[in-house]
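Look over both lines before class:
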Amino acid sequence: MSVSMFRAAGLGLLLLASPVLAQPAPPAPPEAPMMGRGGNGPYAGMSEAGRTVMREAMRANAEDRRANREAVKAARDRMMAVVEADRLDTAALKRAMDDERNIAMASHDRRQAAMLAGLTKLSTEDRKAFVAGARASRERMASRMDKMRERWGNRAERRGNRMAPPQQN
């Protein structure tokens, strides 16, 4: 008798659980907005011709950025080598720092020139759309950073704002 009661109870539980088990999975969350064509990036709202002009202006600097990263890294390595030496050579350190700044500024100037060349080719409508997209991108990034800061702040609060103890040597 007790076996049939367990079977009946099990069957009853299965019948109660079947609607829950039969429910379809929730839909996937919407994809993050894409940058560029059709997305919400700085090119959103621009004509196809305007997008093409700005993409080409940005792409023109892609190889420059890679080479620039390597040159900046080499300058920073020189700075670290000077700082790491037994005797600090401040003149050599200043030269290495100047080299790093000059490399970064030259790259920045080239990017600005390419951007200026691209923007001068745009129609008034495309320029306005570019500004609107750039502002929206900046606001999205600020919102993401605020959320990230909030998460990290909450994490610190949960830990009781304890600082890690100093390392023992």
Summary: The radius of gyration is 29 Å. Confidence is low (pLDDT under 50) at residues 34-38. The chain has five helices and no strands. The domain at 42-151 is CATH 1.20.120 (Four Helix Bundle (Hemerythrin (Met), subunit A)).
